[in-house]
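in:
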């Protein structure tokens, strides 16, 4: 009934909500990666706390835990943390349990003040507004404590579905590839949680959809306003995850003929890019020290300065780093499209779904790299987009090398969720022509929709068999 390009955005909204809401209920308590910390930050935001206050500053401290040497125990600086409510501790104490294994589906929200160690202080407040609104509603209606989690997840999902729907509506081409990326099981899994990843993936896909609209606009139809709006969108995205500030370089790939000013628009583009870069740099200066205002400060092996010294004294180490990015790490990321975190598992990504992953990757290859309705992009755009993808991929990995890996080691801790938005750029970089898919015409989108629904359904079944 709604399989035309004009109405695909409606289908996207409904499909994401249908499978996402089931996911938000069926996934155990705080089982998504870092969801306990996202829960804490969202709860603070629900009380109107835009910038969390870390009490360690009042004590003259710069980290939550003291680490004197690798041979001594880690000592918590008592009193350093964030003021939260006891209801948050209820949920974080039930990690990985289903609603059937906890009493908190029947207990009321406890607003007693408590101190918690971590609350994602380094993230921008707006990344938690949807979750916070859900929690505010749960408190307003005096619901049981489990609804802090459930309504927070559901409101986050609704916002994500809205972003994706808007992106698909804006994009004049490549609508189905954008929907396919938005509905990759790991995308829905993150969107149906309290994670800020829902904001990151949603804003990134919206940025790609807006870029496609600007790229395909009529000649002399764009002005400075569009440059500023696209730059602002990239800034909002990039402050959530700094490497994605590179999306702003997509501005330079829009044909200059599309602008009223022609090539005279370039100075305005460069000014916007510079402003985005300066604000991003200033934000990094704030967010980097804030990492130590959390449980991360107890990890003895974290030493960014030591890692940089090791890199400068061992140049061959960077060669190993790059080689691993395009071998082991790349295969791990691709496998992560259908591989889900388990907080209660000794090995967090222990589950294997080999057949599903292979089928999913073949489907994504068909939709993203061989889409029969693909539009043509000039060589400059394709090469520029590829460089942006590499910039974000290598940049994110290098940040992980400095902020997560042990000195002299390559345990980067990369996850597929970091790079989901990059999949949306693949059809722009280049596609292959497959005659059999070309002959399907409009039927290709219908088959693609069936596969999208099927993979999300398989995800639901995997959770049902694993947890219930």
């Amino acid at each position: 009934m709604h399989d035309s390009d004009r109405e695909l955005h409606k289908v996207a909204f409904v499909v994401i909500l249908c499978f996402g809401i089931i996911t938000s209920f069926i996934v155990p308590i705080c089982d998504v990666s870092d969801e306990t910390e996202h829960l804490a930050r969202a709860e603070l935001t629900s009380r109107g706390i835009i910038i969390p206050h870390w009490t360690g500053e009042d004590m003259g401290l710069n980290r939550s835990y003291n680490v004197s040497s690798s041979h001594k125990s880690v000592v918590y600086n008592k009193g350093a943390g964030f003021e939260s409510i006891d209801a948050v501790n209820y949920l974080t104490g039930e990690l990985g349990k289903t609603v059937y294994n906890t009493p908190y589906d029947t207990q009321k929200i406890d607003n007693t003040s408590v101190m918690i160690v971590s609350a994602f202080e380094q993230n921008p407040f707006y990344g938690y507004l949807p979750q916070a609104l859900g929690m505010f509603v749960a408190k307003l209606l005096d619901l049981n404590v489990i609804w802090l989690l459930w309504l927070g997840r559901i409101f986050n999902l609704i916002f994500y579905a809205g972003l994706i729907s808007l992106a698909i509506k804006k994009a004049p081409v490549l609508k189905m590839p954008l929907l396919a990326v938005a509905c990759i099981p790991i995308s829905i899994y993150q969107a149906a949680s309290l994670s800020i990843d829902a904001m990151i993936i949603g804003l990134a896909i919206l940025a790609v959809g807006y870029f496609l609209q600007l790229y395909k606009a009529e000649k002399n139809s764009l002005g400075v306003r569009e440059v500023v709006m696209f730059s602002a969108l990239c800034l909002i995205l990039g402050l959530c995850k700094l490497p994605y500030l590179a999306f702003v370089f997509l501005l330079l790939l829009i044909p200059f003929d599309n602008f009223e000013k022609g090539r005279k628009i370039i100075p305005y583009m460069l000014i916007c890019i510079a402003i985005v870069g300066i604000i991003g740099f200033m934000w990094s200066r704030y967010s980097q020290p804030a990492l130590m205002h959390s449980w991360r400060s107890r990890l003895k092996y974290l030493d960014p300065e030591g890692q940089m010294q090791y890199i400068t004294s061992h140049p061959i180490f960077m060669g190993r780093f790059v080689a691993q990015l395009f071998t082991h790490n790349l295969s791990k990321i691709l496998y992560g499209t259908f591989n889900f975190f388990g907080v209660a598992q000794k090995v967090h990504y222990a589950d294997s779904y080999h057949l599903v992953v292979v089928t999913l990757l073949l489907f994504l290859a068909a939709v993203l790299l061989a889409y029969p309705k693909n539009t043509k992009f000039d060589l400059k755009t394709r090469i520029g987009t590829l460089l942006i993808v590499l910039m974000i991929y290598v940049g994110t990995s290098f940040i992980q090398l400095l902020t997560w890996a042990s000195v002299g080691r390559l345990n980067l801790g990369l996850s597929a969720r970091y790079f989901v938005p990059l999949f949306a750029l693949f059809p722009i970089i280049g596609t292959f022509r497959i005659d059999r898919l070309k002959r399907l015409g409009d039927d290709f989108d219908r088959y693609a929709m069936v596969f999208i629904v099927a993979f999300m359904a398989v995800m639901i079944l995997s959770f049902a068999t694993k947890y219930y």
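note: The chain has a mean pLDDT of 92.
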